[in-house]
Design goal:
- The protein is an alpha+beta fold.
- It is 60% helix and 9% strand.
- It is built from 11 helices and 5 strands; from the N terminus they run αααααααβααββαβαβ.
- Strand 4 (279-286), helix 11 (291-307) and strand 5 (313-314) form a beta-alpha-beta unit.
- Helix 5 packs antiparallel against helix 6 and helix 9 (206-223) packs across helix 10.
- The radius of gyration is 31 Å and the shape is elongated.
């Protein structure tokens, strides 16, 4: 039986293998993977790392949300119970504030009507008012805290990222295109698409097609580790760079296509292989200010490569 020290070493080795930051969330993820080698999570990790690929921080986050986060219904049910409890506490605090005000009024009347009091009337009133003010201030702070919890501010969504692959979307690509056109230097556009994705969707369903796209995006991100991946459309991924020589770009592009074709993609659950899946690529160069034209050319070259049978580069 593995000791806690063995599991800890195994988790750290897992993070080092995938070059992931040993943050608490990554460490817990690694423990979950190595602690249950036959789980759905472990199977998904094996599918995404088939062929020696490494996990990325984005793919880990996606796996955590899919396999380790509580079901949405459970989360909503817990949230509803929390809101109900906080609403009851808020009502109680409001009632306490009302009771405190009434008590203050009665005390004031008693002080004013008291005969033969040893304390000067003004001093007694001031002391009671000071106490009441402190208690009301504490109640007010608690009411505000509970009100903020009952109506939480939703976390901001990242509108620059694709929900499926966490690559940049078209909105997020604007800055990349602007940087490519800065300084008057030439730039390079690499466009990619998965071959015959429609056939995969028709045969296995769109969920399987999405998994294929995720696997392809992970392959591209690992191969072009220094570039920002853009998901331009459903089946199109793009790199726009001005710091990569065209010879190196061709070499990396060929490496990405070969790595993806070598992956053994399988259906989740049954483990049935879906066969070899390939991709195509197009390359185009452009001068500063011509990013739109070179993007169109690269996409056209990728489509041409796909029409010639796929798993090849044009441009």
């Amino acid at each position: 039986m593995r000791t806690p020290f063995d599991r800890a070493r195994g988790a750290l080795n897992f993070l080092e293998l995938h070059q992931l930051d040993p943050s608490p969330s990554h460490y817990e993820f690694a423990l979950a993977v190595i602690g249950a080698p036959g789980s759905k999570l472990a199977e998904a990790v094996a599918a995404q790392t088939d062929g020696g690929l490494r996990l990325t921080a984005a793919s880990v986050q996606s796996l955590v949300e899919t396999y380790l986060s509580p079901p949405r219904e459970q989360t909503l049910d817990r949230r509803e119970r929390t809101v109900m409890r906080q609403a009851q506490e808020l009502g109680t605090l409001t009632s306490d504030a009302h009771d405190l005000t009434e008590a203050l009024g009665r005390d004031m009347g008693a002080i004013v009507g008291a005969e033969g009091s040893d304390l000067p009337l003004g001093t007694a009133i001031i002391d009671r008012l000071s106490d009441a003010e402190r208690e009301l201030a504490a109640l007010r702070s608690e009411v505000l805290r509970l009100r903020d919890n009952i109506v939480p501010v939703p976390p901001p969504e990242d509108s620059d990222r694709d929900d499926l692959t966490q690559a940049l979307n078209r909105a997020g690509a604007r800055d990349v295109m602007a940087r490519a056109g800065a300084g008057g230097d030439a730039h390079l556009v690499l466009a990619f698409s998965v071959d015959a994705l429609d056939a995969i969707n028709d045969r296995y369903g769109r969920a399987v097609g999405d998994n294929v796209l995720n696997a392809f995006a992970a392959t591209l991100q690992q191969t072009f580790a220094d570039e920002e991946l853009i998901r331009w459309s459903g089946n199109e991924f793009v790199f726009i760079t001005r710091g990569l020589p065209i010879a190196a770009a061709r070499l990396l592009t060929d490496q990405a296509l070969s790595s993806f074709a070598a992956r053994r993609l399988r259906l989740r659950g049954s483990g049935e292989p879906i066969g070899t899946v390939t991709a195509s690529a197009g390359i185009a160069t452009g001068a500063a200010g011509g990013q739109e034209s070179s993007l169109i050319a690269a996409r056209a070259n990728a489509a041409l490569a796909a029409s010639h049978g796929g798993n090849q580069i044009e441009g």
